[in-house]
Design brief:
The protein is of the alpha/beta class. It is about 40% helix and about 20% strand. It has 2 domains: about 280 residues, 3-Layer(aba) Sandwich (Aldehyde Dehydrogenase, Chain A, domain 1), CATH 3.40.605.10; about 180 residues, Aldehyde Dehydrogenase, Chain A, domain 2 (3-Layer(aba) Sandwich). The chain has a 7-stranded mixed beta sheet, sandwiched between helices. A 6-stranded mixed beta sheet has the order 9-8-7-10-11-19, with helices on both faces. Strands 5-6-20 form a 3-stranded antiparallel beta sheet.
Length: about 475
Amino acid sequence: METTMPLPLRNLIGGEWALPHDTSENRNPANPEDLIGLYARGGADEVASAVAAAKAAQPGWAAASPQLRADVLRRVGDILLARVDEMARLLSREEGKTLAEAKGEALRAAQIFHFYAGEPLRLPGEKHNSIREGVEIDVTREPLGVVGLITPWNFPIAIPAWKTAPALAAGNSVILKPADLTPGCAHLLAEILVAAGCPAGVFNLVMGRGSEIGAALVAHPDVAAISFTGSERVGRGIARGCAEGMKKVQLEMGGKNPMVVTARANLDLAVGACLNGAFFSTGQRCTASSRLIVEAAVHDAFVARLTAAMTALRLGDPLDPTTQIGPVVSESQLSGNLDYVRLATQEGCEVIGGQRPDRPGSFQNPALFVNATNDMRVAREEIFGPCAAVIRVADFDEALSVANDTDFGLSSGICTDSLAEATAFRRASRAGMVMVNLPTAGVDYHVPFGGRGASSLGGREQGRLAMDFYTTVKTAYTFAG
């Protein structure tokens, strides 16, 4: 019997679904026999066409009534809400998140569009008195123009949403380049934007390899800004390219996030927070708790409880509602994770778990690296998998010092029943986000997201502060006579 290959899903350029020159397969990491679809794989030519379309469409979009932009974004949110289950199932199939996590992410995307639907009507300005008589001063915000958005595979609908929505709300036109591993959710988002009445050319989707699409976006002289989420290595290269082209740049990169467990912690709460932060979403979150810094007085009891909870997690098909841990996103990612498991042993850790189970798909058992020290590679490099290093410290002061001893600075956390310790940690932690008695992963959409050091560069994402990145300030002086 002949097998009919599915028709390729196309890039969206200037309001048209463009025929691809090349395609890539999108397969389920839990079941490699499950072909989700063939997706267009573009290159520099597609980027050039998308930029031309975006440049032509942007002035009309910026000049339109803010109510028009608000209505389009609200309709996108409405359609996402109506299609949450469809989006969640697709997300689970292509990225490997459990169905519950995928549904939560799809819902978050809808909430993000609804939130930013209000921003075109709230974009602020200022009126100032001049020091010169008869002169009036107005300070306004204007869109940047054409914006390139480069998104990762681990949140394939939430991150495209939280970049696209504020960019469009501010009056920019957009070219979205999703991760090559997870193009399906971005393609569905493009369909929804078209259905919501987004004008042709205002939103463009160009799928393909980051090395080609991303490089072309950064190099194009008509792209005014780049917002990127991904690895530190790639982010540094984008920063250099944007500096050369005098482009505005926003980078969200890695994390090696500490979770401190003090002697005054509620251990049940601490185990729950660490289990969630380290292993949910298969550890594939830049905000994951990858360093568990535990005071000696409770170290052994904590490790015993966390080990029991970790080994009880149900690994399986992400579409099965009883599954708690799905697969790693790809064989390549799994191979890198397993290299770190072997490295942890070589560096002197006691490794609990971390094996590849005997089943089809890119699965890995969660791993604890006990007896780690903060100078080990497994405690300093982002693994981006279900692996957490446990570091024993003598007291709170040492815990705080170790927590801050990292090149990254995205998220941090502390579990303690002491208000004094919580307050001291919250004030002294060198991270962009601090969690007290909560997992380091898990944020709200209406407040700023971002970090310090090697984790972030440029303006914050999410919340109203995101509008700062997607706008530029104009100061106008008028002699009134």
